[in-house]
Amino acid sequence: MSKLLDFLQNRMSMSEVYQPAIIHELLRRGGTASSDDLARCLARYDESAIEYYKKILARYPRETLRKHGIVEYDAKTKQYTLLAALKPTEAARAMEFCREKITEWIDSRADPHTGRPSQSKRLEILKAAHRKCQACGIPGELRYLDLDHIVPRSKADRRDRVTLQGGRKVHVDSPDNLQALCYTCNRSKRDRDQTDFRRTKKLVRDRVSDAIRAEGRDPVTRTLTGTRLATALRDKLIEEVGEYLDDHDPRELEDILEVVFALGHSHGVDRAGLLARAESKRKSHGGFRKGVYYVGDR
Questions:
Q1: Integer Cα distance of 194 and 187 in angstroms
Q2: pTM given for the model
Q3: How far is CA 44 from CA 21, 103, 259, in A?
């Protein structure tokens, strides 16, 4: 067993989520990340500002991980480097250990007495939002994302329930009453504002409405063309790629391909033509199967 795997399994003691989060991000980035990269990573697990986490990063987790020989830090470039030469299978196992440790820490932070959203629920909401503000669309890497109560907590009854549009009652912290907003949009949203910014309208496959009717429902749809269709296809591509990055489910690649073919059609290139172009470029420039990773010139 490698030193890193032994540290993760047997020797890592945690009062905060910092250590496994840093190691996981370094593994995800191929072993090297900047202070800004790691500060943004830590900010995903706590509501403090990135500058605050830069200070945290420079103290406890950095020194602890350096002491154990897990990372090194270059003060000139402000780069952190993971000191581990892992095989792909070992790296995958190490990342899984990190995710388990992070999940354990997140779940331990939930307050069973107040019923407020746990950190694990926060991650689920952010995942559903593809880690973007559901009002303005800015990514969470650029601006911190808050959990916003669509119907404010101030509207909750004595049993902490609120009434959603349509009359259904849910707990104020139910996922049905939560959305991801960047701190700017969330601060500008007043307590009386009950706007649901979650996108329930989206581009779907051509035969989805038939399947909905087969279930006895009555879908309302409209047909997009021109620039509206092109915009919807670009949004759909971001959505499908985000779902694949979240779940690593190869079935999501089928949806990505279908959106790519539709985008090609919008540019006047049919499926066969797009595949022919891709094959031509593969023959001239190669594909990506060999894993050639450019790191610079000598």
A1: 14
A2: 0.43
A3: 10, 13, 29
